[in-house]
Amino acid sequence: MFYWLLKWILIGPLVRVLYRPRVSGLEHVPARGAAIIAPNHLSFCDSVFVPLLAPQQVHYVAKAEYFTGTGLKGRLMAWFFTGAGAVPVDRSGGRASVAAIDTGLRTLREGKLFGIYPEGTRSPDGRLHRGRTGVARLALASGVPVIPVGLVGTDRVQPNGRTGWRLGPRPEVRFGPPLDFSRYEGLGEDRYVLRAVTDEIVSAILDLSGQEYVDMYATKAKALANRAAAAAAAAEELPKAA
User: Fold this and answer.
1) For 58, left (φ over 0), alpha (ψ -120 to 50), or beta?
2) Using only C-alpha atoms, what is the Rg of the chain?
3) Sign (positive/negative) of CA torsion 94, 98, 104, 106?
4) pLDDT in tens, 106-132
5) If pLDDT is split at 50, 70 and 90, which confidence band does 239 have?
6) Which of 107, 211, 97 is nearest to 153 (CA)?
């Protein structure tokens, strides 16, 4: 109930008026019943625009810390994530991916939509990166269709590193035809099958988003970019030290 209050009264109308998001392919998203929603990941606000435009609630996992904060900011954050249908996941102990898949399976078995970003984290450079196989594990274990989503322009609304949103950009959410992987039934532990399914999903996202593709995990690309920035900063300091 609170989710729909956020979507149709408190937040949704304001976002629609200010950003006029475009949407296509809604006929591919079931009005009821389970499916996996698999978008590219350009910005934190992706998790606002996709649920806003989908015909039924999209559930995502979120760090447990978002639900346990203290003070006014912590309470507001917990209020928002709870109302948005986010599911808390304990990311400690290196079990984040397992916990996310377990949570996704439970959500799908309840007949709901579950959103997961195949790249695993936000793109550091606007390109589409190699997918993690968690989305394939979830698809094969649940047997539900995967709906690829291409997000365009959300990184202009809220660039990486910014907490505020910019006015002006008009983002677009493109839902693609559902992908059926029933032909791989019983092969959910085969790593070659998992890679093939993941690559098929990422390829469908690429067709929708129009991004440049790079065969590298986003986490590695982010680490390389940070390393290069640190090296550049160190090089600038050398003349000063001399």
Assistant:
1) beta
2) 19
3) negative
4) 999 999 999 999 999 999 999 999 999
5) low
6) 211
Q: What amino acid occupies position 99?
A: A
Instruction: Concatenate the DSSP letters of all residues of 220-237 into one string.
Output: HHHHHHHHHHHHHHHHHH
Quickly list DSSP for 75-138. Answer: HHHHHHHHHTT-EEE--GGG-HHHHHHHHHHHHHHTT-EEE--TTSS--SSSSEEPPPTHHHHH
Question: What CA–CA distance (Å, rounded) separates 38 from 19?
Answer: 22
122 and 160 in contact (C-beta within 8 Å)? yes
C-alpha distance from residue 99 to each of 96, 146, 152, 218 (Å): 5, 20, 29, 20
pLDDT tens, residue by residue, 182-194 = 999 999 999 999 9
Residue whose tokens read 């979830």: 138
Distance CA 53, CA 150 (A): 13
Instruction: Enter the tokens of residue 22.
Output: 């475009």
| Residue 81 vs residues 44, 59, 119: alpha-carbon distances, Å | 13, 10, 21
In angstroms, the CA 23 to CA 175 distance is: 8
Rounded Cα gap, residues 19 and 31, in angstroms: 24
